[in-house]
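Q: Sequence in, structure out?
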Amino acid sequence: MSALRVFITGASSGLGAALAQHYAAQGAVLGLVGRRADALQHVSQAFENCACYPLDVRDSNAMQAAAADFMQRFGTPDIVVAAAGISVGTLTEYADDLAVFKAVMEVNVLGTVTTFQPFIAAMRQRRSGVLAGIGSVAGIRGLPGGSAYSASKAAAISYLESLRVELRGSGVAVTTVSPGYIVTPMTAVNPYPMPFILRADVAAAKTARAIARRRRYVTLPWQMALVAKLLRLLPRILYDRLFQHAPHKPRNLPL
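A: Exactly. Output:
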């Protein structure tokens, strides 16, 4: 049986790096994308059968070139994971945050599109494979102080659902994974309690399990899945009152 071929963006840190380590331990052939070449090299230095692509997922030409190189060297991937993401506090009243809004939307939404697009035709032709995108519980309801992130993850969840239906019957599955809190550099700056927070390796194992089962949608962990269901059911007037004074993620974090 040939080794699993897995292509992962956002692989230089956080969940993406943990997924790379998880699949490497299984002997997978890896294609890893990250903005920071040094961090990407650090993550991958012990891996065999690994190709690294230091690039920004907002650069569609660079993503297409990386995908073409990976497929020429290793063949069509069995799994493509769009794990690149930005989480930063934003407030619409500040003009400085307009550029931040744009960056968050481009990375978290369009970055998922640019990750998947170069692989779909080859996966369709082979009639197999999984495209996995990372949503968030933050995409269920709009969080104060995190408007860009919540909006981007809500858009990502809807995009992934559209893509899943578009590819129905093609042999290519689309899995949406919506985690709660994960121990990553993005959450390390949060100045508030984070219930049900998962270690990155645990989140990666659960994500890989959902991908292997070709799950359509999964929230991690199960406790946060219950929270997400409750959030959906809360009337708007009650939600507004409960979250009006919720603590905010810090603004002006480096992107």
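DSSP finds nine helices and seven strands in the chain.
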